[in-house]
Sequence to fold (420 residues):
Amino acid sequence: MKRIAVLGIVTAIVLSYAGEMLFAEKASEPAALVQGNNAFALDMYGRLGRQPGNLFLSPYSISTAMAMVYGGAGGETAGQIAKGMHFATGQEQLHPAFAALQAALTAQASKTAKGDEASIQLSVANRLWGDKGQRFLDTYLKLTQQYYGASAQLLDFAGAPEPSREAINRWVQGQTKGKNVDLLPVGTVNSGTRLVLTNAIYFLGNWANQFPKQATKDGVFSTSANRQAKVPMMHQIARFRLGAAEAAQFLELPYKGGRLSMVILLPDSLDGLAKLEQSLSSSKLDAWLGTLQERDVSVFLPRFKIATQLALNETLESLGMTLPFSDGADFSGMDGRKDLFISAVVHKAVVEVDEQGTEAAAATAAVMAWKAVTPPPVEFRADHPFLFLIRDNPTGSILFLGRVIDPRQQETVEGKSRAE
Fold:
């Protein structure tokens, strides 16, 4: 039986108490949205790429989940999210653009699946999980339902946080065909949780030109300019779109149906990746992809599997989103109060590439904790006579006892007080 490639991506935002025609009709808005989302993707990669080792993440899923959070943000909190996420349009345009983009993606995938059964599937799902004791604004629930299809389900976060966490994880597993286990780790949902926003995107596809298994041989992979490793190297000769610019080659490997593809950016020199990453930008990427031309290509590609777990708080804050993670956060558009803030954003992702295609899954959770509202201090003003004592707390013995009638008087002699 032919193995099929799978891509499953999930994003969750946890808040705690304190079609195709649609795309065509609103083409300019989704175009701006895609441009902004791609800019965010490269910003995120630019910061996460400073860490050593392999890396894999889903910026589209993060953008979708953060857009739902943005829908409930106000004031400077909303401004920082918009700037950091590259949401170039206002709330009125952004959410319909996300709906149009999602409809376009799933509509095209549906057409492809009908024409070539089981060769490709692409689905996107969003959901809100609210605490049964928390009241959310109808305007916010309507927005997330209308533009993201995110129906709300009530859970008992306050009384049963662990079963609530497990229920969300089961939904995630179902949406990603079991590829995302434990999206929300133990401890991310507690009695202070009031809302969890989840996004899941699932992709199923095969290479348009699969690599013959018999052609896979052990080959040398240079992990650096002076280090090498032996890895299974896949090989095939076929017509692909290939380009080159700025000391790098670019190869497009399409999946069946041609709508989706993997693009590989390969520096010419063994130690050229850092320089390539430094020059990477949305405009540069567009220019590089513009050099692609179809030709016969002998492709050697390693089989690989990458697993990544990331804590994204500092990364998102470095993009200018500091208020959403602070006590100054304003998510009053969700519940009418400023009592929510993002306490943690974590991302887990895995990808496997072999002769048949790509199998990948990713999950993101942004945990928003109750912003404890500090009441004004209760005043205790000792501005009139008072008693005082010094006691031994373990025994309760009063060792000293006195009173203050006039703080100016420092000495009492034979019943008379004497002031300095």
Summary: The chain has eleven helices and 16 strands. Residues 156 and 163 are 8 Å apart (CA to CA). The two ends are 101 Å apart (CA to CA). Confidence is low (pLDDT under 50) at residues 1-9, 17-27, 412-420.
